[in-house]
User: Which sequence fits this backbone?
C-alpha cells in the first residue's frame, strides 16, 4: 500500500528538499507507526526529529490523515490515505 | 596593550598559538570569530545551522579538525551535527543521544559536549536535558547512554523531578575527564550536584560536602545541589573550581569537602553567576562573571554594571575587571558555557551575552572590547 506524505519545510533536508514523498508499506493493515518506520528507512534521521525515543510525536509536530489529526502511532491508516506532517505554528 | 607575565610551572615555556577562533553557539545558529596571533581584529563568519538552537559546539583537541554541535529547533527533536573538516561540511549523527525505549525518558536537548581522554581518540561524552550522560566511540556519529549513570538506582533521587531543574529544563553539564586517568570523571547537574566516577562511568557517587543548597530543607545534603559550572584548574587536575547557584567553591583532591571561595567577593555584587573560567596555565587564577541572585533572581549584571572578577590566589581575593565595558544600564546575562579563555601566554578571556554581544580581552581581563554585536541569544562560547 502506498501513501503520499506531505513534508514540512523543517524536515525537507532529509528528503532532498521534496515537499512530499511516496512511501510504501507492506503490512496488511499499516499503522501510522509503520508508515513512520518506512519513512525513516527511506530518509534516515527524519523520524527522531518528529517522534521521541518513547514513540510519541513531539509536541510541536502534528500529523493529519485525510485532514484529521492523528497522533496515535497504533492507528490503522485508511487505504491510500493522504498524510500530512506539519511543524505547528509555534516558537519565536 | 602590554603582554602579561603569566605564572607558569617552572621551566615550562608556553608557545603562543598562531591564531584564535571562537565558536559561538546561539539560539538561532552557529557563528565563528577568528583572529591572527595579534588578536587585534576579528572576523565574524556564519551562520551555520541558521534557525537551529545550538546549545554547544566543541572542537576535538586530539585531531584539531573534528567539530560537534548540539542542536535542535523549536519544532524538531534534538540532534548532533559533526564535521571532520573544521566546519566546512557537516553530517548529522546517525543515532543522536536518546534514552532507551521503554525508559519513559525523553531527551529534550543535548546541552554539553566533552571530547574524551587523549588516549581514547573518537570518544566523546554528551550531557542532556533532562539529566542524561551519553557516550560516542566513533567521533559523534553514533551515541549510547552511559548505563552506569542513566540506569543508576539512585539517579532519580539525585536528579529529582523536572521542577528541580533550571527554568529551561534540568541539565547534566561540566563533564570533566581527568587527563591522567580516562576512567576518572566528574559531572555536574542542575540540579543534582557534582558526582564522581573512578571506573569510566560504571558507578558514581556524590561529591558535594561543603557546598550550600539553601533551596533545600536539609542543612548539609549529600546531593540535590545546583552547580552552574565546574572546571579543572589550569594544569592541575587535582583542583576543581565551581560556580554554584549558592556561591563559588574550590576543591583540592584528595579532599572531599569544597572550600567556599566566594566570601571575598564584594557584598553588593555577591557570589552568584553562571560561568567558571580557569586560567589555562596557572592553577591559582580564575574568572567568574557575577549576576544578580537577589529577590526573584534577575540573573543579570548586578546594578546594571557588568564586570568579570578575577582571582589570582585560588579565590581568596577577587579583583573587578570592567575596563572597556559599559559602566551603567547594561543588563547582561552570561550563561554557564558562554565564557572561556584561550591558551596564549597572555591569556585571552571571552564571553557572550544573551543579548548577542561577544566581548574579549587579550590581556587577562584588564581591558575589554566588543568583538561582535547583534547576534542572537548566545548559549556558548568556546575558544579553540
Assistant:
Amino acid at each position: 500500500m502506498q501513501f503520499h506524505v506531505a513534508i514540512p519545510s523543517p524536515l525537507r533536508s532529509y528528503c532532498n528538499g521534496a515537499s512530499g514523498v511516496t512511501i510504501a508499506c507492506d503490512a496488511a493493515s499499516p499503522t501510522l507507526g509503520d508508515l513512520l518506520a518506512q519513512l525513516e528507512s527511506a530518509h534516515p534521521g527524519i523520524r527522531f526529529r518528529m517522534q521521541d525515543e518513547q514513540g510519541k510525536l513531539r509536541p510541536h509536530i502534528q500529523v493529519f490523515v485525510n485532514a484529521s489529526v492523528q497522533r496515535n502511532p497504533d492507528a490503522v491508516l485508511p487505504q491510500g490515505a493522504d498524510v500530512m506532517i506539519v511543524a505547528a505554528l509555534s516558537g519565536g | 596593550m602590554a603582554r602579561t607575565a603569566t605564572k607558569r610551572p617552572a621551566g615550562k615555556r608556553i608557545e603562543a598559538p598562531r591564531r584564535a577562533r571562537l565558536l559561538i553557539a546561539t539560539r538561532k545558529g552557529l557563528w565563528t570569530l577568528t583572529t591572527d596571533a595579534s588578536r587585534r581584529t576579528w572576523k565574524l563568519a556564519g551562520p551555520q545551522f541558521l534557525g537551529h538552537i545550538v546549545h554547544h559546539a566543541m572542537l576535538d583537541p586530539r585531531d584539531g579538525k573534528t567539530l560537534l554541535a548540539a542542536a535542535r529547533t523549536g519544532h524538531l527533536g534534538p540532534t548532533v551535527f559533526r564535521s571532520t573538516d573544521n566546519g566546512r561540511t557537516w553530517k548529522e549523527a546517525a543515532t543522536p543521544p536518546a534514552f532507551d525505549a521503554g525508559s519513559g525518558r525523553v531527551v529534550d536537548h543535548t546541552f554539553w559536549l566533552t571530547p574524551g581522554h587523549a588516549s581514547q581518540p573518537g570518544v566523546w561524552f554528551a550531557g542532556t536535558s533532562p539529566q542524561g550522560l551519553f557516550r560516542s566511540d566513533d567521533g559523534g556519529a553514533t551515541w549510547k547512554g552511559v548505563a552506569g549513570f542513566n540506569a543508576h538506582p539512585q539517579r532519580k533521587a539525585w536528579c529529582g523531578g523536572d521542577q528541580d531543574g533550571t527554568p529551561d529544563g534540568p541539565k547534566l553539564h561540566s563533564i570533566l575527564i581527568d587527563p591522567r586517568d580516562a576512567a576518572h570523571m566528574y559531572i555536574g547537574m542542575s540540579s543534582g550536584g557534582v558526582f564522581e566516577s573512578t571506573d569510566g562511568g560504571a558507578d558514581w557517587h556524590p561529591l558535594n560536602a561543603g557546598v550550600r543548597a539553601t533551596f533545600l530543607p536539609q542543612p548539609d545534603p549529600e546531593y540535590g545541589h545546583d552547580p552552574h559550572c565546574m572546571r579543572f584548574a589550569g594544569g592541575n587536575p587535582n583542583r576543581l573550581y565551581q560556580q554554584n547557584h549558592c556561591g563559588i567553591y574550590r576543591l583540592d583532591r584528595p579532599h572531599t569537602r569544597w572550600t567556599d571561595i566566594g566570601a571575598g567577593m564584594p557584598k553588593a555584587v555577591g557570589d552568584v553567576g553562571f560561568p567558571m573560567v580557569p586560567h589555562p596555565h596557572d592553577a591559582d587564577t580564575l574568572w567568574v562573571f557575577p549576576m544578580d541572585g537577589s529577590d526573584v533572581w534577575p540573573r543579570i549584571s548586578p546594578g546594571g554594571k557588568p564586570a568579570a572578577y578575577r582571582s589570582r590566589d585560588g579565590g581568596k581575593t577577587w579583583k573587578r575587571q570592567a575596563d572597556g565595558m559599559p559602566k551603567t544600564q547594561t543588563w547582561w546575562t552570561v550563561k554557564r558555557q558562554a565564557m572561556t579563555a584561550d591558551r596564549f601566554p597572555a591569556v585571552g578571556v571571552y564571553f557572550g551575552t544573551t543579548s548577542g554581544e561577544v566581548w574579549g580581552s587579550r590581556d587577562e581581563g584588564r581591558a575589554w572590547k566588543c568583538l561582535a554585536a547583534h547576534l542572537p541569544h548566545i548559549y556558548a562560547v568556546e575558544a579553540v
In short: The CA atoms of residues 19 and 36 of chain A lie 16 Å apart. The mean pLDDT of chain A is 94.
